[in-house]
Design goal:
The complex is a heterodimer of chains A (about 325) and B (about 350).
Chain A lengths: L4 H4 L1 H29 L6 H19 L11 H37 L3 H23 L4 E2 L8 E5 L2 E4 H23 L1 H11 L1 H6 L4 H27 L1 E2 L3 H16 L4 H22 L4 H15 L15
Antiparallel strand pairs in A: 1-4, 2-3
Helix pairs in contact in A: 2-6, 2-9, 2-10, 2-11, 3-4, 3-5, 3-9, 3-10, 4-5, 4-9, 6-7, 6-9, 7-9, 10-11, 10-12, 11-12
Chain B lengths: L3 H11 L2 H16 L20 H25 L8 H17 L4 H23 L4 H21 L9 E2 L17 H24 L1 H11 L1 H6 L4 H27 L1 E2 L6 H14 L4 H17 L7 H15 L15 H4 L1
Antiparallel strand pairs in B: 1-2
Classes of the chains: A mainly alpha (about 325), B mainly alpha (about 350).
Chain lengths: ~325, ~350
C-alpha cells in the first residue's frame, strides 16, 4: 500500500491513465459495435488487436524498410511513416474483422442457432489466429523500432506531456468523435442503428443485413487496428499473446460503460485506464486486474447494465 | 441430418429392465478396461504418440469429461454462461496442495474440504453474480477465474509463481495403489466419480431442481412468474457445478504432485466450455463424447507438434459450423411423462 502517490503523482497518473484509456476505448469499440448489432461478444477481437500490433511493426520494418535499430525519423518522413503504419494496421484489422464475421458468424447466423455456438466458433477463430502468429513469429517477441523520438512538450502539475501520450489522446479523440458522428448522423450509421434495434424490421425496410453487419465488423476492426498502432508506438514490443489481456481489459471497459453503447465504451475505457494506473501505483501492478474486476462487480451490482446503460437509443426485445 | 440422440433414446425406451442393466454393465466393463486398450492389436490405433496413452486417458480425457459434466449443469442445464470454471478446479487443487503439504490429512480426507471450499466459492461468486444476466454474468465469472489465478500467483502461502510442490499421492484403497506413473488407478477413481456425477445429474433432471433449471434456461421471466425461485436454483446449479470442479482439482493435484498458477489459465475454462458446446449442451452423453474428442485430439496429433493447436482450432471451427448444436444435441423438446405431471 502506497498512498503517498495520490498526492505526489496525482496528475501524472491521471494523464497516463487517460492515454491508456484511449487505447482501451478504441479496442472496446470493436466489441461494443458488434455487440450492439449482433448481441454477441466478439471473442476474436482480442486476437485482432494482436494481429494489428504485428501489422504495425511489419508496416514500419518490412514495407517501409526501417531497420529494427534505425534512428528516430524526423519531418515529413516521420509523419508519413506513422500515418502509413496507422492506416495499414487499421485496414488489416478491418479486413480481418470482416473475415472473422464471414468465417465464424455468418453461417451460424443464417442457421439461427444458439449464441453459445457462435461464441465457441469465435473462440476457435481466435485460437487459429494466435497460433498462426505464434508459428509465424516462432513465439519470440517482436520489437518495433523507435521511429518516434519521445520528447516532451513540458510538465504541467507534475504530468509529463510526452509526444506519444499527446498523440494518443488527440488522435484517439478524433477517431472516436468521427465514429460517433458517423453512427449518429450518416445514412450507413442509421442502417447500423436500425439493425441493432431490430434485425427483422430493418430487413423489411430494405437494409442489406449482411452488408451492414460486415460494415460493423469492418469499423470495429478499424478502431481496433488504430489501438494496436498506438499500443505498439508506446510499448515498442509485441508478442503473439498480447491480445488476451488487452482484449479482456477492453471488454471490461465496454461492460463497465454499458455494452452496445458507443459513449459508454468511451467513458468506460477512460475510467478503466485511470483506475488501472492508480491501482498499480497504490497496490502494485500485480493486483491491477483484481481491482478492476472488483470495481466491475460492484458497478454491475449497483447498476446491472453498466454506468451509462445499454445502447441509449435501443429498445431491448 | 441423422439424429443419433433420438435414435439412441428410442432404442433405450424399448428395452426392458434386463436389457438395460446388462447394457450398462457391459459399457462399464468396457470403459474400465480402457487403460489396457493400447496393448491389444485391435485397439492399438488409440495409442498416442510421445505422451503415454494411459497418462492421456487420465489427464486430459477423464478429467475433462468430469469437469465438462460439472460445467454442463451450469451452462447446459440452466443456461448460465460461466467463463471462469477453472477457478473451482484451481480452488480444489490448491486445497489439496496446501492441506496435503501442511497437514497429515490424506487425499480422501481432503476431498470433502476441496469440494466444500469450491462450493463456498461458488456461493460467494454466485450471490452477487447470479443477479446479472447473460453476458454480464459471463464477464464476471471470467474475472473471477482470473482473480483466483492472480491471487494464487501473488500470495506467499500458495507459493507464488512456483506453486506448491511435493503434494502426496492418495493412499491405497481396496488394495489399489496410487503412484505417479501408475495411471490406471487414477483412471478408475475418476471413472467412479464420473458415474456418480451421471447418476446425480439424472436424478436431479427428473426432480424439482432439474425442472426449475430447465424453466430458467428456457425463459427466466416466465420461470419467475411460475414461482421458480430464480436465485436459489441458480445458486444450486452453480455450486453443484463448482463442487464437481473442486473434486476434479483435488484428484488432479494429488496425481501430478505439483501445481502452479499457470495450470489454471482462462484457456482451461474455454476448453471445458468448448467440450460442453461441441458435444451438445445439456445432453450428458454428448458432453462426454465432446470432452473425450477435444481432450484426445490434440494428443493424438502431437506428431505435427508445432501446428497442432492450429489444427485443433480449425477442426473446432469447422465442426461448430457444420453441427452448431453439437455432436449429440439434446432433444428439441423434452417430453414430460404423464406420471410426473400429477
Amino acid at each position: 500500500m502506497n498512498f503517498s502517490v495520490l498526492t505526489t503523482q496525482f496528475w501524472s497518473l491521471c494523464l497516463q491513465g487517460v492515454a491508456l484509456g484511449f487505447i482501451y476505448v478504441l479496442i472496446s469499440l470493436g466489441y461494443t459495435m458488434v455487440y450492439g448489432v449482433l448481441r454477441l461478444i466478439n471473442f476474436a477481437n482480442s486476437e485482432v488487436v494482436m494481429v494489428g500490433t504485428f501489422a504495425t511493426v511489419i508496416a514500419q520494418v518490412t514495407i517501409l524498410k526501417n531497420a529494427a535499430d534505425s534512428d528516430p525519423l524526423h519531418g515529413f518522413r516521420l509523419i508519413y511513416t506513422l500515418v502509413f503504419a496507422l492506416v495499414f494496421s487499421a485496414l488489416v484489422c478491418g479486413l480481418l474483422g470482416v473475415l472473422v464475421e464471414l468465417v465464424a458468424y455468418r453461417r451460424l447466423r443464417a442457421l439461427g442457432t444458439n449464441r453459445l455456438a457462435s461464441l465457441i466458433s469465435a473462440i476457435a477463430v481466435s485460437i487459429v489466429l494466435s497460433e498462426a502468429v505464434r508459428i509465424y513469429s516462432h513465439s519470440a517477441p517482436l520489437t518495433s523500432p523507435r521511429l518516434l523520438e519521445k520528447w516532451s512538450f513540458g510538465e504541467v502539475a507534475g504530468a509529463n506531456f510526452r509526444i506519444d501520450t499527446v498523440m494518443i489522446i488527440v488522435a484517439g479523440s478524433l477517431i472516436f468523435f468521427s465514429l460517433d458522428r458517423f453512427v449518429n448522423r450518416s445514412r450507413l450509421g442509421k442502417a447500423i442503428r436500425a439493425v441493432s434495434m431490430s434485425e427483422e424490421n430493418s430487413k423489411l425496410m430494405g437494409i442489406n443485413l449482411n452488408r451492414v453487419i460486415s460494415l460493423t465488423f469492418f469499423i470495429g476492426g478499424l478502431t481496433t487496428g488504430a489501438a494496436a498502432f498506438f499500443y505498439t508506438t508506446v510499448y515498442e514490443t509485441t508478442q503473439f499473446n498480447v491480445g488476451f489481456n488487452l482484449g479482456l481489459a477492453a471488454f471490461t471497459a465496454a461492460v463497465l460503460g454499458g455494452i452496445g453503447n458507443l459513449r459508454g465504451a468511451f467513458y468506460g475505457g477512460i475510467f478503466l485506464g485511470v483506475l488501472e494506473q492508480f491501482s498499480s501505483a497504490i497496490l502494485g501492478s500485480q493486483w491491477k486486474s483484481v481491482t478492476v474486476f472488483l470495481v466491475l462487480v460492484l458497478v454491475l451490482l449497483i447498476k446491472p447494465s453498466g454506468i451509462f446503460g445499454e445502447a441509449v437509443q435501443q429498445t431491448r426485445t | 441430418m441423422i439424429n443419433i440422440r433420438d435414435k439412441g433414446a428410442a432404442i433405450w425406451e424399448n428395452w426392458n429392465r434386463t436389457k438395460r442393466v446388462s447394457f450398462v454393465a457391459v459399457v462399464i466393463v468396457l470403459v474400465a478396461f480402457l487403460p489396457y486398450a493400447g496393448t491389444f492389436p485391435l485397439t492399438s490405433f488409440l495409442n498416442t504418440p510421445i505422451t503415454s496413452y494411459q497418462a492421456v486417458l487420465v489427464y486430459p480425457i477423464a478429467m475433462f469429461v468430469l469437469m465438462a459434466l460439472g460445467l454442463n449443469i451450469v451452462v447446459g442445464k440452466s443456461g448460465l454462461l460461466d467463463l471462469g470454471y477453472v477457478a473451482f478446479f484451481a480452488i480444489g487443487a490448491y486445497t489439496m496442495g496446501i492441506l496435503g503439504t501442511m497437514t497429515h490429512l490424506n487425499t480422501w480426507e481432503i476431498l470433502p474440504f476441496g469440494i466444500g471450499f469450491a462450493m463456498l466459492a461458488g456461493l460467494l461468486l454466485g450471490l452477487p453474480a447470479l443477479r446479472l444476466r447473460g453476458d454480464y454474468l459471463a464477464i464476471v465469472t471470467l474475472g473471477f477465474g482470473e482473480i483466483v489465478r492472480i491471487i494464487a500467483l501473488n500470495l506467499r502461502q500458495t507459493g507464488g509463481p512456483n506453486g506448491v510442490v511435493g503434494i502426496p499421492n492418495p493412499p491405497p484403497i481396496f488394495g489399489q495403489k496410487f503412484e505417479l506413473n501408475d495411471h490406471a488407478g487414477y483412471f478408475w477413481i475418476i471413472f467412479v466419480m464420473i458415474m456418480l456425477v451421471i447418476w446425480m445429474v439424472r436424478r436431479f433432471t427428473v426432480r424439482r431442481p432439474g425442472r426449475a433449471w430447465e424453466a430458467i434456461r428456457q425463459d427466466e421471466d416466465v420461470a419467475a412468474l411460475m414461482g421458480v425461485n430464480l436465485l436459489v436454483y441458480k445458486l444450486w446449479s452453480f455450486s453443484i457445478g463448482a463442487a464437481i470442479g473442486g473434486a476434479a482439482g483435488v484428484i488432479y493435484a494429488s496425481k501430478v504432485m505439483f501445481i502452479a498458477p499457470d495450470m489454471f489459465t482462462f484457456n482451461v475454462s474455454v476448453l471445458i466450455l468448448a467440450c460442453v458446446v461441441f458435444g451438445g449442451m445439456g445432453n450428458m452423453w454428448g458432453v462426454i463424447l465432446g470432452a473425450s474428442i477435444l481432450a484426445y485430439l490434440p494428443e493424438r496429433i502431437r506428431f505435427i507438434s508445432n501446428s497442432r493447436q492450429l489444427v485443433f482450432g480449425l477442426v473446432l471451427l469447422v465442426i461448430m459450423n457444420v453441427r452448431p448444436d453439437g455432436l449429440l444435441p439434446r432433444k428439441k423438446r423434452e417430453k414430460i411423462k404423464h406420471k410426473e405431471v400429477k
